[in-house]
Each structure stands twice: as C-alpha cells, then as structure tokens.
Amino acid sequence: MPIRAMNEEAEAYYSQWKGLEKEHREKKNLKDGAEFLSGMSRSDSINPLLILIVYFGEEKWDAARSMHKLFGKVAESEKMQLIFTKYPIHVLDIRRFDNADNFHTDLKWVIGFLQKAQNRNKLQKYVMENKEVFEYLAEDTYNLLVVMARSPMLEELKDDVKNLKGGWNMCKALDDMVKDGERRGKRLGKNQINKLNRLLLADNRQQELLRSVSDRKLQQKLLQEYAL
Questions:
Q1: Residue 54: strand pairing partners
Q2: How far apart are CA 78 and CA 39, in angstroms?
Q3: Which of 53, 59, 108, 196 could be cross-linked to 103 through a Cys-Cys bond (beta carbons 3.0 to 4.6 Å apart)?
Q4: Domain that holds residue 117
Q5: For 35-79, how does the pLDDT look when each residue is reduced to its tens digit (9 = 90+)?
Q6: What's the alpha-carbon Rg for the chain, to the nearest Å?
Q7: How many domains is the chain partitioned into structurally?
Q8: What is the pTM of this model?
C-alpha cells in the first residue's frame, strides 16, 4: 500500500506539473532559461495532495504503514532511515475509528453501523436511536452497507424496503432479517425433530420418542446422539 499510495501521489504531482508546462508553452511566456527548461515559472505552485486509505476490514490493519517497513533490515538503523524516504501512509480504520461524529456526510452512519455490525443488539439499538437517518438512507449508502457488512440478506431485501417517498429503510430491513431468521430457525428445529422421530421409530425406540415430547433434556440428548 505505501508503494501504491506513493505512485498515485507522484502521478498526481506529475500531472499538475505537465499541465503548467502545457499552459506556459501555449502562452509562450517563459523567457528565463531555467524556467523554460523546467516548464514552470518561479511563481508557479502545485496543490499538495493527501492520500487517505479507507480500510473497512474486520481485522486490525497489520500491513506496512511506511516504506521503511517494506525495506526490512536495510532500514533498521537510524543512519539508513535518514537516507531512505520513510513515506508514511494515512489509514482510516473504519471499524476502530473513534471520531465518527466529526463527519457530516453519510460516512458517519456507515462507520457507526459497521462498528456495531458484529453485535445484533448493539446494531439494532444504534439504528433505532438514529431512526430518522436509517429510515431514509441514500441508495449508495445502503449499497455500501450491504457490501461492507457482507450481508446477502440485506441485498435481497433492498426492493422490499424502498420508501415511496425515496430512500431505503434500514430499520425495516434489519427487522425483516430478524423475523426471517426466527422463521428459519423454527423451520429448522421442526425439521430436526421430525427427522429424530423417524429415526427413533426406525430403531424401535418408541418409548424414548414419547418421553422426549415432554422432556427437553432427553430430546436434546437424542438430537446429539443422532448428530442432528
């Protein structure tokens, strides 16, 4: 990443310089020899560039944050560090960023959402506390949350949670996800019990089958026994 960032920055500065050079060439206003050779006048300046790497990963960033880290042992001594450019990079670690409230765009809500995505209760509480925002999310914000939260279910629900007045209702999407999960859980549990009952009948264990109907501990023990 330090190499990629450094390359992007160099290309941007190069583009600005070539733009100035072209402008002066068209105006033919560089009379000084040094200025003519450089393509820039002494009063020219270029805009500084800050590259910010926005990191959405669930794991903490553990890659290199400077060129010195990529150089390995070559840049271990202080003397060598003075010779070689360090070129540090700036990483915005979304899931561990503490100042999301400083943002004034939807990125603020994306950060808050992703930081709580691993805990269903915390996520639902956060969304409901900011209901006026999450009930009318912009489409690109909703899409970003779908991708970064790695939730196919949110993508499936997208058409169902679009508001008539515009925007996408994340509150409804999460609520529908919970209800769907509960329905699936009930269906799965019912299928497991039905399969257990068939296996008990096939093994002539009718007495245990009858007992398991009212004895939850026995039922769980039998489910484990049959690897269900």
A1: 92
A2: 37
A3: 108
A4: 106-178
A5: 999 999 999 999 999 999 999 888 899 999 999 999 988 888 888
A6: 30
A7: 3
A8: 0.63
